[in-house]
From TrEMBL, chain A:
<protein>
    <submittedName>
        <fullName>Methionine ABC transporter ATP-binding protein</fullName>
    </submittedName>
</protein>
<dbReference type="Pfam" id="PF00005">
    <property type="entry name" value="ABC_tran"/>
</dbReference>
<comment type="similarity">
    <text>Belongs to the ABC transporter superfamily.</text>
</comment>
<dbReference type="InterPro" id="IPR003593">
    <property type="entry name" value="AAA+_ATPase"/>
</dbReference>
<dbReference type="InterPro" id="IPR017871">
    <property type="entry name" value="ABC_transporter-like_CS"/>
</dbReference>
<dbReference type="InterPro" id="IPR027417">
    <property type="entry name" value="P-loop_NTPase"/>
</dbReference>
<keyword id="KW-0813">Transport</keyword>
<keyword id="KW-1003">Cell membrane</keyword>
<keyword id="KW-0547">Nucleotide-binding</keyword>
From TrEMBL, chain B:
<dbReference type="InterPro" id="IPR000515">
    <property type="entry name" value="MetI-like"/>
</dbReference>
<feature type="transmembrane region" description="Helical">
    <location>
        <begin position="290"/>
        <end position="314"/>
    </location>
</feature>
<comment type="similarity">
    <text>Belongs to the binding-protein-dependent transport system permease family.</text>
</comment>
<keyword id="KW-0812">Transmembrane</keyword>
<feature type="transmembrane region" description="Helical">
    <location>
        <begin position="241"/>
        <end position="270"/>
    </location>
</feature>
<keyword id="KW-1003">Cell membrane</keyword>
<feature type="domain" description="ABC transmembrane type-1">
    <location>
        <begin position="94"/>
        <end position="311"/>
    </location>
</feature>
<dbReference type="InterPro" id="IPR045621">
    <property type="entry name" value="BPD_transp_1_N"/>
</dbReference>
<feature type="transmembrane region" description="Helical">
    <location>
        <begin position="133"/>
        <end position="156"/>
    </location>
</feature>
């Protein structure tokens, strides 16, 4: 087995707030092979975005990576000087966000913003930056790429705007793109298009993807493997087909049951009762226990890992 | 863009018309200028002749009509006191105020905006707290008091800078300018600094608030994720995103300083229009008051127009709305 592109071990990211220490990422471990597409799912507030930002070394104060290791091509990213991290960002590891209307700068032309991203990593003169930007726009399916460089973000539709953001992420052909719910803000029909294009682009360039979503259905159509996150921990992981067909964790079961396409027609969708707990004051034991149909006295203890690295769950009472 | 411009020009013309009427009526209500024009012991005949000569016996609306007609030809009347055209009088004094006001808003902007951006970028730093504390002083300490302290410190005690007047001037475009000579620049320094303190405080606060907000935005996160350096992000993204409120305040402050630099001009014996208006009010020099106010209104309207155009240049979304 070749060394993975990314190896995350026991990652802990905390926010030191006035109310106490918030453990947003609480001992997360996973690996990612070159060109692999990894889904990261969970309800909102489970720590997916913070995990993504941690990978780029972009956790805003008062947050910080409190422990663990992020090994990218054998290089340790935790504790790397800010200047070295900046060299990696955009060049080797890129990120795209949920709302393209908010990420692109409304007062700069798309070309100007792309040129800044090119020149952040050398990239030669304005002419060369423009050429590279136009090529990247064309690659994500924006017609008339050269003239569109002079347009402002508001002159693009929502889907086109997200394509611009993707084109910026692809500028330097990074090895890894962290995509934080990039289709959530878009129309359903456009979502499907962008998903398919993203998958094709990643395959074409051998780019690995960490695809963050609160929606298992989105991830299932895209990813090779999936991580299910709850209250800052990975509670289940495995190949997408296996996780969907035979989930181990009651939380994953709950997520599946609440998907419209997966439920039987005519039946009420089964929402998971309750809501995500506050990460500020997590009692010991399984954080899902208060919402779990299978919970019993044992769940007051920290749950054990069942299964192996490739197909695991964190549960006292796994299904099957 | 052209439609936008025409629309704005029409608006400006309407505002000017309304202002001229208000100013004319307002000043008409103050005192009787005849008492100033002729000596109290003049005969009734002389009195009546003078009133007729100045058109003061005509009905108010007719006087306004005559005034408006002259105004459109650029004629603001003659000063009762100096007996020279008001326009000449005001234009003679205006450059002094213009350079003082411009110097003070430029100091405010070029010093205040970087300090404010820094304070917004590092809100918890010791230097930022110092900057913010100083800006509170800039707001709350009265201008005249600071002016006196500046004179005492730099002119009287240290003797570094002159305490008053414009110093040596150079004539360019038919007007004398202090900032073009070393001596004039030294004379300009203290009054400009005095006037700039309030603007400095304002610019610091605005730039800080804007920067704090923008630094938390997804735009900055995305720029960081693309590997841009913090310096590039501040210079290329943040500055552009916070520019609109800054330009607004720059324009408004420039306008109001032009009109109301009175206190500073008095303290530093700066021979600008502020001193002129005070003198003309004391002397009931009606044409000068009216002419001055109309000119000030004109300057305000012009500055506002320029600020509106600057918006369109700064925010492409406005440009499109204007075109539609
Ligand atoms: N800047 C921050 N300050 C304090 N808490 C934060 C901050 N960012 C995220 N969090 C907390 O971290 C937890 C995980 O958030 P996030 O990763 O955004 O969730 P998700 O992306 O899964 O919806 C949440 O409880 C959230 O309140
Ligand atoms: Mg999120």
């Amino acid at each position: 087995m070749t060394a993975p592109l990314l190896d995350v071990r026991d990652l802990r990211t905390e926010f030191h707030t006035r109310a106490g220490v918030l453990r947003a990422v609480n001992g997360v471990s996973f690996t990612l092979a070159r060109g692999e597409i990894l889904g990261l799912v969970g309800e909102s507030g489970s720590g997916k975005s913070v995990t993504g930002f941690s990978l780029l070394g972009l956790v805003d104060p008062p947050g910080r990576i409190a422990g663990g290791s992020i090994s990218f091509e054998g290089q340790e990213l935790v504790g790397l000087p800010p200047a070295r991290l900046r060299e990696l960002r955009g060049k080797r590891i890129a990120m795209i966000f949920q709302d393209p209307a908010a990420t692109l700068n409304p007062v700069l032309t798309v070309g100007a913003q792309m040129a800044l991203a090119v020149q952040a990593h050398g990239g030669g003169g304005d002419r060369a930056a423009r050429d590279l930007a136009a090529r990247s726009l064309a690659r994500v399916g924006i017609p008339d790429a050269v003239t569109r460089l002079d347009a402002y973000p508001h002159e693009f539709s929502g889907g086109m705007r997200q394509r611009v953001a993707i084109a910026i992420a692809l500028l330097h052909q990074p090895d890894l793109i962290v995509a934080d719910e990039p289709t959530t803000a878009l129309d359903v029909s456009i979502q499907a298009q962008i998903l398919a294009e993203m998958k094709a682009l990643a395959r074409e360039n051998g780019t690995a993807l960490v695809w963050i979503s609160h929606d298992l259905a989105t991830v299932s159509s895209l990813a090779d493997r999936v991580l299910v996150m709850y209250a800052g921990r990975i509670v289940e992981s495995g190949p997408v087909a296996q996780v969907l067909r035979a989930p181990l964790h009651p939380y994953t079961r709950g997520l599946l049951d609440s998907l419209p396409a997966m439920g039987r027609p005519g039946e009420m969708l089964a929402q998971i009762p309750g809501s995500t707990p506050s990460l500020l004051s997590l009692p010991p034991g399984c954080p899902f226990a208060p919402r779990c149909p299978r919970a019993d006295a044992a769940c007051a203890q920290d749950p054990p890992v069942v299964g192996t690295e490739g197909r695991m769950a964190l549960c006292h009472h796994p299904l099957t | 863009m052209l439609g936008f411009l025409i629309q704005r020009l029409l608006q400006a013309a309407l505002v000017m018309l309304a202002m001229s009427a208000l100013v004319f009526l307002g000043v008409y209500a103050i005192g009787n200028p005849i008492d100033v024009l002729i000596s109290p012991d003049a005969t009734q005949d002389i009195r009546a002749a003078t009133i007729r000569a100045y058109g003061l016996d005509r009905p108010l609306w007719e006087q306004y009509g005559v005034f408006l007609g002259r105004l459109l030809r650029g004629d603001l009347g003659r000063s009762f006191v100096f007996n020279i055209p008001v326009l000449e009088l005001v234009l003679d004094r205006l450059p002094a105020t213009l350079e003082l006001a411009l110097a003070s808003v430029l100091i405010g902007a070029f010093v205040g905006v970087p300090l404010g951006i820094y304070a917004g970028y590092r809100p918890d730093g010791a230097l930022s707290r110092g900057i913010m504390a100083a800006s509170v002083l800039g707001f709350s300490v009265p201008t005249f008091w600071v002016g006196l302290i500046l004179i005492l410190t730099f002119a009287v005690n240290l003797g570094w800078l002159p305490a008053g007047n414009r110093g040596e001037t150079v004539r360019v475009l038919g007007a004398g300018w202090s900032f073009l000579t070393w001596d004039g620049l030294q004379h300009l320094a203290l009054p400009a600094l005095n006037l700039s303190l309030f603007k400095l405080a304002m610019m610091i606060r605005l730039a800080r608030a804007g920067t704090r907000e923008v630094m938390l935005s997804d735009t900055v996160k995305f720029a960081r994720a693309a590997g841009l350096s913090e310096w590039t992000i501040l210079r290329r993204h943040v500055l552009r995103l916070i520019a609109i409120p800054l330009v607004t305040v720059f324009g408004l402050e420039f306008g109001s300083t032009l009109a109301f630099a009175v206190v500073t001009e008095t303290i530093f014996s700066w021979p600008g229009v502020g001193k002129l208006i005070i003198e003309s009010i004391t002397a009931l020099d009606r044409p000068v008051m009216v002419g001055y106010l109309v000119l000030v209104a004109f300057l305000f309207v012009t500055i506002n127009l320029v600020v509106d155009l600057a918006y369109a240049a700064l925010d492409p979304r406005l440009r499109r709305r204007a075109r539609a």
